[in-house]
Amino acid sequence: MSGKPLTGLDADQQSVFPTVTAYIRATVGEPLGSAESDRAIQRLTNILCMNCCEALGEDAAKVAASFADTIPAGRDVPSCGDGRLAPHKWLRLEAGKILKTDAGGHEIDHTAVGRQSWMWDLAGFATEWGLDQSGSLRLLQLMQDHHMPVDWRTWKFYRLAYSSFRLGQTAMCADAAANDGSERARLRAASSFYRRTLEAQLRDPTG
User: Fold this and answer.
1) Domain that residue 181 falls in
2) How many domains, in total, are found in the chain?
3) Contact 11/135 with Cβ under 8 angstroms?
4) What would the 3-class secondary structure string for 145-183 be?
5) What is the pLDDT of residues 140-170, one digit of tens each?
């Protein structure tokens, strides 16, 4: 199948937001039960505290972790259906249609992330595509319009958790790629991107 992989710059194109949000809604999985949902949030909190502390210090980690404290416990929530929404996972076909590639078998992340709320996909889209404040607001409004409202502090928590996880993941992989200079450079660049994103999210009180 021929098509052009998208980049973060394509986020401004009119068809991207409706297509991606429709995909997120269509791929949500079976709900997480209340106990499983609580465990999922705790795993992300642990990742967030550890990676944020290592990268930015204890004070930053405390601020980041505070967003987990206000997420209501014991909730059943739809589960994440993909977890891999980076721009290069999407193709624009010759006819102009946007198609998601690599779309199956990701319901359970085989890292410490594990099975998560559908919010993990939403945070992944916003982070990987580098959405600014206006882009994030547009994203949340689209979900609101389709009866999937997002609480602001919950949104902040998942954005921070996603960035901190990817920061730690890419930094670790860069260290492991000592014998492959080009791959190590790519992973270090990615790690720097997630670090900047995490810092920006902590500085921005509006989300």
Assistant:
1) 4-203
2) 1
3) yes
4) HCCCCCCHHHHHHHHHHHHHHHHHHHHHHHHHCCCCHHH
5) 999 999 999 998 889 999 999 999 999 999 9
